[in-house]
Structures are given as structure tokens and as C-alpha cells.
């Protein structure tokens, strides 16, 4: 039997429109195969919805430890949602969750792939070194498999 591992939800952000400022939330409704209620992708307004060759994720996650490393190693400050990811985690190696199902709060999600940094994110964050700072550790794209509420402080169990 595999032992469960546990991390936590440290922050939640949604942006209501393409290029919109990330808004912090204490909790958000995660809707299966749709996204986070109030987020640009839930409403079909995200940059990936507008570019047909790109598939949007229901939810994106990034490690708090990665953000701290980006600041320490490259002087890049991506706090307050500037990284454009929905959920900031602590105590989770997101790279291990590609292809895996896991629980985030009440929702069940499945890691679909790495969420690599892009120039668009760096431009919006006004951090020219952001792509370099997050290269290979930009987070996780995931699909919401079962709906539920995700709140700051919730457990992430895999």
C-alpha cells in the first residue's frame, strides 16, 4: 500500500479576463471539466481560449518553494499571483503529479502536464527574468475530475 503524502494550499488567485489582474481568494469553487468559478478560463476568456491551438487547463498550480527560489536565485518577485497560476502550494513536488490524480481541498484533480512559463506571463508580471527563473519549474496544469471547494489552508493529498 502506498502511503499518502500531504501538502497545503497556501494561496488562491483567479483573473476575471485575459490579462486581468490576479485576484486573491480565500476559497473558490472548482467545477469538473470547466475550471475555477470566476476565473478567465471558466468563462472562456483566457488567452488559451483565444488561441485555438492551445488547450486551457481547468486549474494551474505552482510551488511556494519555487517562488522563493526564483526570488533568491534571480531576484524575481512573483508573489501576489503575478505568476498567473491559480493555486500556490506548499510541501508538494508538483512534478511528481503529472499523470496522477490527487485531492485539492474537496476537489479531485489530475495533473496533465508541466505548466511552463511564457513571455506573456513575464510581460504581465513586469519581470523580464521570470521565464528564466521558472524554467523547468513553472508549475502544473491539471484537469478537475470531481467538483468541490478549494480554500486557503486546505490539504493537498496524493
Automatic annotation (TrEMBL):
<feature type="region of interest" description="Disordered">
    <location>
        <begin position="1"/>
        <end position="25"/>
    </location>
</feature>
<dbReference type="Pfam" id="PF03473">
    <property type="entry name" value="MOSC"/>
</dbReference>
<dbReference type="InterPro" id="IPR005302">
    <property type="entry name" value="MoCF_Sase_C"/>
</dbReference>
<dbReference type="GO" id="GO:0030151">
    <property type="term" value="F:molybdenum ion binding"/>
</dbReference>
<dbReference type="InterPro" id="IPR011037">
    <property type="entry name" value="Pyrv_Knase-like_insert_dom_sf"/>
</dbReference>
<dbReference type="GO" id="GO:0030170">
    <property type="term" value="F:pyridoxal phosphate binding"/>
</dbReference>
<dbReference type="InterPro" id="IPR052716">
    <property type="entry name" value="MOSC_domain"/>
</dbReference>
<feature type="domain" description="MOSC">
    <location>
        <begin position="23"/>
        <end position="158"/>
    </location>
</feature>
<protein>
    <submittedName>
        <fullName>MOSC domain-containing protein</fullName>
    </submittedName>
</protein>
<dbReference type="GO" id="GO:0003824">
    <property type="term" value="F:catalytic activity"/>
</dbReference>
Amino acid at each position: 500500500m502506498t502511503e499518502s503524502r500531504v501538502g497545503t494550499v497556501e494561496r488562491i488567485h483567479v483573473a476575471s479576463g485575459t490579462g486581468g489582474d490576479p485576484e486573491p481568494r480565500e476559497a473558490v469553487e472548482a467545477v469538473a471539466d470547466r475550471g475555477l468559478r470566476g476565473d478567465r478560463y471558466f468563462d472562456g476568456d483566457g488567452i488559451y481560449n483565444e488561441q485555438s491551438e492551445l488547450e486551457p487547463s481547468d486549474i494551474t498550480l505552482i510551488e511556494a518553494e519555487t517562488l522563493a527560489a526564483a526570488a533568491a536565485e534571480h531576484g524575481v518577485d512573483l508573489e501576489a499571483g503575478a505568476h498567473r497560476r491559480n493555486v500556490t502550494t506548499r510541501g508538494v513536488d508538483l512534478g511528481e503529479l503529472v499523470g496522477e490524480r490527487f485531492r485539492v481541498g474537496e476537489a479531485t484533480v489530475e495533473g496533465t502536464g508541466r505548466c511552463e512559463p511564457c513571455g506573456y506571463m513575464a510581460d504581465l508580471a513586469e519581470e523580464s527574468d521570470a521565464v528564466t527563473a521558472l524554467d523547468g519549474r513553472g508549475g502544473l496544469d491539471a484537469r478537475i475530475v470531481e467538483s468541490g471547494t478549494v480554500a486557503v489552508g486546505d490539504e493537498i493529498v496524493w
